[in-house]
Amino acid sequence: MEAMTTASVDAVADQDRKGPGRPRSARADEAIIEAVLDLLSAGQSADALSIEAVAAKAGVGKATIYRRWPNKEALLIDAVTTMKGPVPEPAGVSVRDDLVALIAGMRTKRMHHYGKVTACLLPELVKGEEMHKVYQAGVVEPRRDVMRGVLRRGIESGELRADLDVELTLLMLSGPAIAQNMLRWNPAVPDEGFAEHLVDAILRGARP
Amino acid sequence: MEAMTTASVDAVADQDRKGPGRPRSARADEAIIEAVLDLLSAGQSADALSIEAVAAKAGVGKATIYRRWPNKEALLIDAVTTMKGPVPEPAGVSVRDDLVALIAGMRTKRMHHYGKVTACLLPELVKGEEMHKVYQAGVVEPRRDVMRGVLRRGIESGELRADLDVELTLLMLSGPAIAQNMLRWNPAVPDEGFAEHLVDAILRGARP
Questions:
Q1: What is the ipTM of this complex?
Q2: Which class does domain B86-206 fall in?
Q3: Which intervals hold domain HTH tetR-type (chains A, B) (predicted)?
């Protein structure tokens, strides 16, 4: 987990999860994050989300939240980072399989939940440049960079064309998944086999 | 469409009340729609948007709005439809040129404005099934169907593979534009030449 504001505390929380006797504060943190995600996935916009509502839902006092997160923006970014889980590690055997695994990871069974949360966060993301930057650096770029690494490896190994536009290809792989997660843009495209079909269609134009 | 000043719209509304003046009421409608779009593109979430705020910004009374739109959802859908403009008509010469024109139309100079508006509308779209259906039928499907027509024509003419997955290709063309408009997902992909590069990359795998 690489949230900027609370990285060290997150590391502690990660260690906590391994042992049985977890401190009360880690449980409270989890309840707070879970409350944020529940409210956002229920269609509450990040704009309208109040610290009061989060505190009430998590069963903690407002002060507990403010002790841990300086403001709502930091809490929102931490909640999304938690939701996304750890940055995936590709197996590194075939470029096709790695890309399929990465795209399938964006479209898990919880994708609808994810999409709703991201959708409800969007007004905050487009309103402030600062929030957009933090979101890009903390949430988007670490995952995009894993996929970038797979594409670069494919160019080196000759599985992909030497002149492939890597940045455009990243967008071509992720954009369709984002549009389906957030907007259910094309209901005629089945979820079943989504990652395989998308990756194969893109690879058809990306092979040497 | 330029936003009217509050003063000019007040005058319009006054005249509207006195005389028949249908074109004048049409101008009030425009001011109302423009007010919705301005509020959304400023980062106001559709959730938090009130009819009071729209009325105040448009310089009309709330009753003027309710006479025309039964509820906020209907007003939001009308605003987005207006923003999108008429459904585009492809030239019908080459499939490549038609697709480039359609994608470029999604990424105009106002794209940032569009993206912000759509982003701020998303919480409403994911919250209610009804709103999502109306948005799909009124905004998404008419445009998607134009692009679908271009792809089918390409298959018939032999410009595209006979076994092309049309629905997936629609998503592969639109998803990257949506992700850039709404999230500025990959800042490393330049806006300049976006439509050409994307269409050519997809056609590379879609040709016979």
A1: 0.82
A2: mainly alpha
A3: 26-87
